[in-house]
Design brief:
There is one protein chain. The chain is α+β, with helices and mostly antiparallel strands. It has a domain at 35-120: OB fold (Dihydrolipoamide Acetyltransferase, E2P). It contains two helices and five strands; from the N terminus they run αβββββα. The protein has a five-stranded mixed β-barrel with strand order 1-2-3-5-4. The radius of gyration is 26 Å and the shape is elongated.
Amino acid sequence: MKPILILLLTCFIVTLSTAQSHSKPSAQVKKSSPEFVAEVGCGQCQLGLPGKTCDLAIRIKGKAYFVTGTDIDSHGDAHASDGFCNAVRKARVQGKLVNNKFKASSFELISEELLHAEAATSPKTN
């Protein structure tokens, strides 16, 4: 009797675990924002934004915005010779503008060596 109960219970559990869900698929597909390369630096020291502390900022289409989702100290010493307070750098970013700030979902600083290598190998246009 016990083996039959165990067999029936096992079959019941297997049936439940392999049953398909009958929920409706989501009607909304979340589109991710495109990745692009932008100028980044200290908003106050390099990009002309107001404030008394050093905060990470990005320039998009000629306009500077503070960055959320990452901070100035997450990408090296901001006050080094190549840091954000002393140089405008390039970064590969992904995110969107929210309340007049750039909310970064991805932020990767591009090294100077890579920028020079890309410039040397890119085709010249007239």
